[in-house]
């Protein structure tokens, strides 16, 4: 009878008001994103310990950038390989594989105790971090599919908002775990215990992955037309019509003229600027977003918010670092998601992106221009203004391009090419993340380095701002007309099944 | 082709068949056990009966003798089975007879199976039924009668959700959509209608020209393909037409079997369709390409195929006809990827990247070791010299 009960759970998901089912479904659907965010960002919080243990606090900038960014390098091939395997044997079964891979590599990255030579430990760590990123690259699109399948038809918008926030919570959890683990070792032998702290923080990334796997296996197989929920019905119909004989009617003959491929002059003419704009914007925002998040600690050390290495007790320093990280995630990054969910259909996607890039440009310019001033302040309290501006930059990244660069490519390209174009833009986003990580690969302590980096981010945001103007406005239509046409078209297409659906998509890592 | 109508079991020909998938309660991750259910017509000296047979996945065969057997009704001629529908949970099944529908409880132990008749007065009085269907979530059960009477019940309470005495002249085929939103039904006069199940009302009639007859119908079971497949006869030609269920417009059509079609079915994962013909052939169609990938000729020589049922776990089907009973056929289609093959691919990639990491490690001894100095000046050529490892399989789209 267990399977029957599980099957009936699915029915209740649609019909019942919000109940325990839906909170469980939210946790299960969002746990994938939670795990991804935790795993990606926890490494920067334990970088100090690795530097202390194996490099006497003088870690080479190349090594630091590699440790920080190797998981991102793994995510790109992971997405490709698991996408291909998912087509072969079904996405549900691949989901279990990606989660198990994430569990194993999270644990493995902390379990090398062979020797204490820096080169051996760090090389093995980088190897397993690469494969963790590989698993995350595969997990991310599958988590999106799982999300769309469990959404209650009546409250899908709120459900998606909650899933949205799981990435912010994952970032937050990384901070909390690092604070708790480092604080619990605060009063004992720092040298010996540091070896355990960084391993524990990284290996705890396996816990949400295991929970996701366990809960996922307990939930019933979903019975949904995910193409309808994910608004892919037109692409599915287009794929099907390509293998069938299509009855030509005078109306269809006009439509058939639009049957151009991705590598064709027609696509270049109609959508070339759109693809260029979406890719460039995604690249620009990820350069800023990832560099600000992964190098937050180093910038704060230079400005004086955090004591430099060696000056103070190691774990006290790590505690302060993670508290600042957590505070910025809690007050800046997380609210940005919720603001976008609340306003994305009211203000419009392109306007939010314009607002976000504008504010990010202004804030990074202010940070860069006033950097010397903050550095000169005598007390931590006075330097907090820098942290506030830093948090605001993260806020407008999420109430801005970090969210909309995911939404817009899903809406402006023809259904037939949407997945490919979205994938291309997303790949540029990952490249931007890698640029953000390795581009900051310089000695922060040198005079004038950080302001120059901030000016570089300002330039990157300006590039994003400029390319945002190439989005739907390029044809002279007003945003309202563009949004209205898109929504009308979508609703006409999906009216029979998901008339109440919201036009909100997911934010990638 | 093996299994099928073994005389040793006694009784009449197999009139209808279905697969049963059982998942053990203990652990959800355990693989499901698969059985087959046969409905046998009565014969001299033996009443009409329901049987459950074991399925050997390795041999792709059914057990020669039934694991359990139950007499249908009181053994009269009116109790001949016409169709079987198994609840998705695998613990109940409904068998249609000329008098009405019989409900049976299935109990599976470690080594034994029991079939226990259950009283369901509402079902037993419905008269002869042409179509039976459970919804995928197991919460709905629909029956279409010879008299054109459509009933949809909530399950397991067997409360009536829809009761339409004049849905059709007489039912030809029926199916419930993957998400349990819609029911499609076709009539012997060639019309087809979509019903909204929760509202208990018709939604649309599928458009057709006057010389077209919509015959068999099945919803897609692939979540990424929200389609309805129907066989449409236009004079002597029969084509398979695909409808988009978001707007109920035709997407296209294809001629697959090239013969008059008697039955249509879809695999549980939605990857294959099966078409049975009036002269005893059947074929399996790859839904992604809409091409025939398996064709069995003369499985039911000279007799229309009345049903084709896909096995839940293997590429095996049971087809039935009135004259020849049941035939088990292993489909000659490409094997599905197994879990171990995925892990093998990942292991190969893992080892390849390990080799690449090791080569990089050996060639860059100084990269990982102590820094050159605290005040090392930052120069562009230093950045290039100390570039991070980039595995070969890192290729953006």
UniProtKB/TrEMBL annotation, chain A:
Keywords: Membrane, Phosphate transport, Symport, Transmembrane, Transmembrane helix, Transport. Residues 25-476 form the Major facilitator superfamily (MFS) profile domain. GO terms for cellular component: membrane. One of its GO terms (biological process) is phosphate ion transport. Coiled coil: none annotated. It is found in: Membrane. The chain crosses the membrane at residues 20-45, 65-85, 94-113, 119-137, 158-184, 196-215, 323-344, 350-374, 423-442, 454-472. It holds the Pfam family Sugar_tr. One of its GO terms (molecular function) is symporter activity. The keyword Manganese does not apply. It is a multi-pass membrane protein. It comes from the Eukaryota. InterPro entries: MFS_dom (IPR020846), MFS_sugar_transport-like (IPR005828), MFS_trans_sf (IPR036259). PANTHER family: SOLUTE CARRIER FAMILY 22 MEMBER. Belongs to the major facilitator superfamily. Phosphate:H(+) symporter (TC 2.A.1.9) family. This is H(+)/Pi cotransporter.
From TrEMBL, chain B:
InterPro entries: Sec12-like, WD40/YVTN_repeat-like_dom_sf, WD40_repeat_dom_sf, WD40_rpt. GO terms for cellular component: endoplasmic reticulum membrane. WD repeats lie at residues 179-205. Gene3D superfamilies: YVTN repeat-like/Quinoprotein amine dehydrogenase. One of its GO terms (molecular function) is guanyl-nucleotide exchange factor activity. It is a single-pass membrane protein. Keywords: Endoplasmic reticulum, Membrane, Protein transport, Repeat, Transmembrane, Transmembrane helix, Transport, WD repeat. One of its GO terms (biological process) is protein transport. PROSITE patterns: WD_REPEATS_2. It comes from the Eukaryota. It is found in: Endoplasmic reticulum membrane. The chain crosses the membrane at residues 340-361. This is SEC12-like protein 1. It comes from Zea mays (Maize). The lineage of its organism: Eukaryota, Viridiplantae, Streptophyta, Embryophyta, Tracheophyta.
């Amino acid at each position: 009878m267990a399977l029957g009960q599980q099957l009936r759970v699915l029915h209740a998901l649609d019909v019942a008001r919000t109940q325990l089912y839906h909170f469980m479904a939210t946790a299960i659907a969002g746990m994938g994103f939670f795990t991804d965010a935790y795993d990606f960002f926890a490494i920067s919080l334990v970088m100090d310990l690795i530097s202390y243990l194996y490099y006497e606090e003088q870690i080479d900038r190349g090594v630091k950038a590699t440790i920080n960014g190797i998981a991102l390098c793994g995510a790109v091939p992971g997405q490709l390989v698991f996408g291909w395997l998912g087509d072969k044997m079904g996405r549900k079964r691949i989901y279990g594989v990606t989660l198990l891979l994430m569990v194993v590599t999270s644990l493995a990255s902390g379990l090398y105790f062979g020797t204490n030579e820096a080169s051996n430990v760090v090389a093995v760590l980088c190897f397993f971090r690469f494969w963790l990123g590989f698993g995350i690259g595969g997990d991310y699109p599958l988590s999106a599919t799982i999300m769309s399948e469990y959404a209650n038809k009546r409250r899908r918008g709120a459900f998606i908002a909650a899933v949205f926030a799981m990435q912010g919570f994952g970032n937050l959890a990384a901070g909390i775990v690092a604070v708790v683990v480092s604080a619990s070792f605060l009063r004992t032998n720092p040298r010996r215990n540091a070896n355990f702290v960084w391993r524990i923080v990284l290996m705890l990334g396996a816990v949400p992955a295991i929970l996701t796997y366990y809960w996922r296996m307990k939930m019933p197989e979903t019975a949904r037309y995910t193409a309808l929920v994910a608004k892919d019905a037109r692409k599915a119909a287009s794929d099907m019509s390509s293998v069938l004989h299509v009855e030509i009617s005078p109306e269809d003959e006009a439509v058939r003229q639009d049957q151009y491929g991705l590598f064709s002059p027609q696509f270049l003419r109609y959508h070339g600027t759109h693809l260029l704009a979406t890719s460039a914007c995604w690249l620009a925002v990820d350069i800023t977003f990832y560099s600000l998040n992964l190098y937050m600690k180093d910038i704060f050390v230079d400005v004086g918010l955090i004591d430099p290495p060696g000056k103070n007790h190691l774990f006290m320093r790590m505690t302060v670092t993670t508290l600042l990280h957590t505070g910025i995630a809690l007050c800046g990054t997380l609210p940005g998601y919720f603001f976008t969910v609340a306003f994305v259909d009211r203000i419009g996607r392109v306007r939010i992106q314009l607002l976000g890039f504008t504010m990010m440009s202004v804030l990074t310019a202010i940070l860069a221009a006033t950097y010397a001033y903050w550095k000169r302040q005598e007390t931590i309290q006075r330097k907090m203004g820098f942290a506030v501006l830093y948090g605001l930059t993260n806020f407008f990244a999420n109430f801005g391009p970090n969210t909309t660069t995911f939404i817009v490519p899903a809406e402006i390209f023809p259904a037939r090419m949407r997945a490919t174009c979205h994938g291309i833009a997303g790949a540029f986003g990952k490249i931007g993340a890698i640029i953000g990580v390795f581009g900051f690969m310089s000695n922060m302590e040198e005079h004038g380095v950080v302001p120059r980096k901030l000016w570089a981010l300002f330039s990157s945001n300006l590039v994003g701002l400029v390319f945002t103007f190439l989005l739907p406005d390029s044809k002279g239509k007003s945003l309202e007309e563009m949004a209205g046409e898109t929504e009308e078209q979508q609703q006409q297409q999906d009216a029979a099944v998901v008339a109440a659906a919201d036009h909100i998509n997911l934010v990638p890592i | 082709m093996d299994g099928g109508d073994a005389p040793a079991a006694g009784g009449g020909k197999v009139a209808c068949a279905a697969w049963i998938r059982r998942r053990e309660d203990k652990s959800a991750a355990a693989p499901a056990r698969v059985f087959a259910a046969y409905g046998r017509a009565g014969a001299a000296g033996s009443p009409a009966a329901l049987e459950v047979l074991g399925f050997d996945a390795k041999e792709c065969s059914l057990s020669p003798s039934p694991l359990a057997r139950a007499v249908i009704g009181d053994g009269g001629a009116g109790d001949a089975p016409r169709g079987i529908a198994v609840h998705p949970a695998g613990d109940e099944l409904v068998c249609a007879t000329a008098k009405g529908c019989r409900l049976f409880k299935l109990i599976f132990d470690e080594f034994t199976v029991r079939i226990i008749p259950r009283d369901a007065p509402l079902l037993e009085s419905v008269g002869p039924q042409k179509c039976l269907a459970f919804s995928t979530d197991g919460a709905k059960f629909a029956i279409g009668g010879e008299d054109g009477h459509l009933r949809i019940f909530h399950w397991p309470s067997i409360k009536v959700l829809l009761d339409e005495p004049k849905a059709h002249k007489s039912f030809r085929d029926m199916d419930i959509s993957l998400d349990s939103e819609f029911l499609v039904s076709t009539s012997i006069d060639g019309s087809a209608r979509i019903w909204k199940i929760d509202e208990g009302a018709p939604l649309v009639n599928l458009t057709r020209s006057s010389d077209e007859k919509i015959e068999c119908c099945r919803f897609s079971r692939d979540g990424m393909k929200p389609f309805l497949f129907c066989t449409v006869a236009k004079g002597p030609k029969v084509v398979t037409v695909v409808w988009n269920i978001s707007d109920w417009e035709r997407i296209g059509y294809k001629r697959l079997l090239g013969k008059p079609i008697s039955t249509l079915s879809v695999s549980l994962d939605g990857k294959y369709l099966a078409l049975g013909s009036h002269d005893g052939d059947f074929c399996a169609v790859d839904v992604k390409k809409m091409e025939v990938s398996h064709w069995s000729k003369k499985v039911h020589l000279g007799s229309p195929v009345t049903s084709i049922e896909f096995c839940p776990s293997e590429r095996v089907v049971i087809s039935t006809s009135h004259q020849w009973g049941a035939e088990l056929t292993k489909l000659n289609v490409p094997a599905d990827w197994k879990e171990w093959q995925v892990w093998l691919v990942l292991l190969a990639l893992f080892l390849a990247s390990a080799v690449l990491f090791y080569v990089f490690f050996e060639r860059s001894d100084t990269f990982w070791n102590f820094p050159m100095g605290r005040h090392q000046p930052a120069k562009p050529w230093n950045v290039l010299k100390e570039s991070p490892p980039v595995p070969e399989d890192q290729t953006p789209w």
